[in-house]
Amino acid sequence: MPDASPLAVEAIRFHEVGKTFPTKPVPLRAVERVSFGVARGELLAILGPSGCGKSTLLMMAAGLEEPTEGRLERGGMPLVGPHRQTGVMFQDATLLPWLSVLDNVLFPATIRRIPHAKVVDRAMELLRTVGLKGFERARPHELSGGMRQRAAICRALVLDPDLLLMDEPFSALDAITRDEMGDVLLDLWQHTHKSAIFVTHSIREAVLLADRVLVMSRRPATVAEELVVPFPRPRDPRLADTPEFTAITAHLRGVIAAGMQGEMA
Ligand SMILES: Nc1ncnc2c1ncn2[C@@H]1O[C@H](COP(=O)(O)OP(=O)(O)O)[C@@H](O)[C@H]1O
Ligand SMILES: [Mg+2]
User: Fold this and answer.
1) How far is the CA of 28 from the centre of ligand 1 (A)?
2) I need a surface site. Which of 34, 121, 126, 201 has the fewest CB within 10 A?
3) Are 72 and 80 in contact (CB under 8 A)?
4) How far is the CA of 51 from the centre of ligand 1 (A)?
């Protein structure tokens, strides 16, 4: 008999989800009937070639795009449109330039007409956690790119979502800032135990941060490989220098390269 306890319910599940965009003159098949789920508290990383349909998967998970076939479940219920317990962070940290850092972090509350007083303590605590204490009143242009991304993480988390969707959140950053952001995320993770889907181009980032990695094929996206990351938590960034880690990243690189070769053939 299946386990009916609430913990057995996944944060999100894709059931045979496909997506075709009605482009002219020919429709564009972005996602080919994929099925996967994210357990509660699990961090799933998605890797795959550029243009394969990763962002489309996240947009559907966010309820911002509808699947053409199949269906999504969120916490065991059908997903219809944006879910208030889902936090999103897309590629460019588009903070609103006229708002302070704190007001940007509070913006999801503003949209939902939740009184700021209810969430301001949490916002301040998040800003402190990511090292932005003292910058609450600054405007986005006064921050570095890495600091803006940190503020965007706080914004995605301010309403205490149980699922966080991140689309290449650090890809615009230089390598060192990017590693720092990985550490920030790992740290937040180890404290909050949220479910998350994290799209990245970095194999290292995926293996360092995630519980499980999906490698998508070239477009239309299907799951080419699924790998459970065997390293216990808490993880240390120095893990990336070990032979065990390197063996896994080399394997994933091979899977991705195999997919790309198919593209050129
Ligand atoms: N709204 C849309 N309308 C038409 N085509 C789209 C739309 N969004 C994405 N696509 C196309 O779908 C494919 C997958 O895009 P995307 O999911 O952004 O890929 P990835 O994030 O893996 O780079 C691309 O060919 C892209 O041009
Ligand atoms: Mg994308």
Assistant:
1) 8
2) 121
3) no
4) 6
Q: Which amino acid is at 131?
A: G
Each residue of 142-171: pLDDT tens digit? 999 889 988 998 999 999 999 999 998 887
196 pLDDT higher than 60: yes
Q: Would the CA dihedral through 79, 76, 212, 157 be positive or negative?
A: positive
Q: Whose CA is nearest to atom 17 of ligand 1?
A: 53
Full-model pTM: 0.90
Ligand 2 centroid, distance to 50 Cα (angstroms): 7
Which residue has the least CA distance to atom 8 on ligand 1?
Answer: 56
Q: How far is the CA of 51 from the centre of ligand 2 (A)?
A: 7
Report residue 52 as tokens.
Answer: 């394969």
What's the CA gap between 154 and 123, in Å, rounded? 7
- Whole-angstrom Cα distance, residue 242 to residue 142? 38
Query: Cα–Cα distance between 244 and 262 in angstroms, integer?
Result: 28
**Ligand 1 pocket residues where CB is under 6 Å:** 21, 23, 28, 30, 48, 50-56, 219
CA distance 73 to 181: 30
Of all protein residues, the one whose alpha carbon is nearest to atom 12 of ligand 1 is: 30
Type and span of the H or E element at 103: helix 101-105
CA 35 to chain centre: 17
**Residue 265: pLDDT above 90?**
no
pLDDT of residue 1: 46
Tens of pLDDT, residues 200-252:
988 999 999 999 999 999 999 999 999 999 999 888 889 999 999 999 999 99
For residue 5, the one-letter residue type is: S
Domains of the chain with CATH codes: 1-85+164-171+196-265 (3.40.50.300)
